[in-house]
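Bug report

Summary: structure tokens for cyclin-dependent kinase differ between web form and batch submission.
Environment: batch mode, default settings.
Steps: 1) Submit the sequence below via batch. 2) Compare with the web form result.

Sequence submitted:
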Amino acid sequence: MSSTGKSRWANDEEDAALEAQRKREKEEKKRLKAEKARKIEAERQEREAAATAQRLREQPAQDQQSANGPPAKRRRLSQDRETGTGGAGTVNNGNESSSSNRLLLRFEGGPFGRCRSVENYDKLNDIEEGAYGWVARAQEVSTGKIVALKRLKLDPKDRSGLPVTGLREIQILKDCNHRNVVKLQEVVVGEDTSKIENIFLVLDFIEHDLKGILEDMPEPFLASEVKTLLLQLASGVNYLHDNWILHRDLKASNLLLNNRGQLKIADFGMARYVGDPPPKLTQLVVTLWYRAPELLLGATRYDRAIDMWSIGCIFGELLTREPLLQGKNEVDELTKIFELCGVPTEETWPGFKRLPNARALRLPTASKSSPATSFLLRAKFPLLTAAGVSLLSGLLSLDPDKRPTAKEMLDHEYFRQDPKPKQEAMFPTFPSKAGQERRRRRQTPNAPVRGQQAADLGAVDFSGIFSGREREERGGGFALRMV
């Protein structure tokens, strides 16, 4: 092979021309970049000059204001949407930054506007009054649509403005969009806008609440109907929990049912957003008959398990048409819980003795401890299937960690067994009390009022809670015994 041949890697005229072109393009890019930097610097200097002139013009007014008091804080405006430039240069520790202005976080939102007047609605009749407001049936004047008007309760002595419970309820209802959660249509106010006493939530009107139906039914719901109601309740609660919302007051009177068999969760006066791990929260939540044992024992850190306990109480109420645990006070409520679910031990509820109200309790010894929860529930609900007892005992587990989540409840075997859940369209209908007259109700406890003090149980003796169960009730040829 000849060594004098021209290498194919050698530079020729074409390579030299290509190299010269690349060099010219690179120099042109550098020139454009430098020109852009000079333009940015000139604009910055112009803005600084304008800001300095503005400060000089405002100096006499600032001197006068400083004599009268400290100046008000000025908000830094975000950049113009189109140009991306701000009203002043970036300053770090008093030194001017050579970089361009920082971008500020911008939250998109609808425009602010005046609320409509409640005079756009004609009140038809009162429905009920709760701890955080009263509800009336009303008709929109322009459309004739029937709605529910909930007026927020405000303490006239409280000068802090709208209570946090009302703000939370409005925020949560505006954020929620689920078929099993009541829908907030708008917020309206009274004609006198100088006062905040008249604030109304316009909600979907639902014909019944579950408690009113249970009080008037001659017979309990069928098993298929109970399953339909529980599935809808679990679906709505699962949506709330997936969006980090605790309802904290689930009970039969807060569950609405329309004439098409659709259940909706209502009354979010005690609801709030939580995180993971949950923050320190007030223990005075949930109506007494539906309050979880950890709340009665003073827990201040709790999660979605308190809502699941309330669902268990509602489950039992659907089966018997009576509230499951009707305690007269916190001590009596704990007594009824222990009678139905057994007395807690370190095996069944690890760490419960560390709760504030559990340290002074006197509980039965291990030899006198209560039977298993499932056995007690089987005795109380003899017609409930084994899968139903399993679900109910799980929801009423004393240990919050052992209660199923709403999602796990939706997948439970109980809903797959016969009889299958009844279709909503086949659900029975009932005459609507809310649409005809003021509701006459039996006396039942209300939700705790914000600002109240939680009960301190002190030293309570539960050691004799099962002392009467060794006595037998004898019938014709057989004996019944609770062991």
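Above is the batch result. After comparison, the two runs are identical; trailing whitespace caused the diff. Residues 1-9, 80-99, 470-483 have pLDDT under 50 and may be disordered. The radius of gyration is 34 Å.
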